[in-house]
Amino acid sequence: MSSPCLFCRIASGEIPAKKLYEDDEVFAFWDISPQAPTHFLVIPKKHLSGPEAISAEDEALIGKVVRIGAQLARENGAEHCRLAMNNGAEAGQTVFHLHLHVLGGRPMSWPPG
Ligand code: 5GP
Ligand code: ZN
């Protein structure tokens, strides 16, 4: 039976996405509704519902997600970028599979809305 999780299905190739990067642990793809000229998502293939679900054994994996996000940003014209994780619905999380937003290619304001 296929996973009910949208990003698990994207990472497995069951649902198509514009892939930027893939290895055995990490998958990166362009956001379907970009909020900046560069806007992609980096996810662990392991299903974690969000930052709250990270356990000590996942620390290296999440470090890798961030490292690859910054590296792909540089390679895609967004060396200066915003790396963001929304944690919970009130913080704007709509997909409950941990993902790092990488946004760049325009000046970023602070604080975010
Ligand atoms: P969240 O709001 O959970 O932090 O971010 C979820 C992100 O996933 C949003 O920026 C949204 O545009 C993106 N997204 C939702 N569904 C899809 C999809 O089917 N394909 C892709 N590529 N991005 C998606
Ligand atoms: Zn998932």
CATH topology: HIT family, subunit A
Strand order of the largest sheet: 1-2-3-5-4
Rg (CA only): 14 Å
Shape: globular
How much β-strand is present in the residues?
A: 15-25%
**N-to-C order of helices and strands:** HEEEHEE
- For the record, the CATH architecture stands as 2-Layer Sandwich
Ranges where pLDDT stays below 50 over 5 or more residues in a row are none
Oligomer: single chain
The largest β sheet comes out as: 5 strands, antiparallel
> Pairing-aware structural class of the strands and helices?
alpha+beta
* Hetero ligands: guanosine-5'-monophosphate, zinc ion
Please tell me about this protein's structure:
This protein has a single domain (6-104), classed as HIT family, subunit A, CATH 3.30.428. The mean pLDDT is 96. The protein has a five-stranded antiparallel β-sheet, covered by helices on one side. The protein has helices at 6-11, 59-75, and strands spanning 19-22, 26-30, 38-44, 81-84, 100-104. Helices cover 20% and strands 22% of the residues. Bound molecules: guanosine-5'-monophosphate and zinc ion (ZN). Guanosine-5'-monophosphate binds next to strand 2. The site of zinc ion (ZN) has 5 residues, from helix 1.
How would you briefly describe this protein structure?
With 113 residues, the protein is an alpha+beta fold. It has two helices and five strands.
Features:
single chain; alpha+beta; 113 residues; five-stranded antiparallel β-sheet; 2 helices; binds guanosine-5'-monophosphate
Indicate the topology:
Elements: H1 6-11, E1 19-22, E2 26-30, E3 38-44, H2 59-75, E4 81-84, E5 100-104
Antiparallel strand pairs: 1-2, 2-3, 3-5, 4-5
Guanosine-5'-monophosphate (5GP) binds next to strand 2.
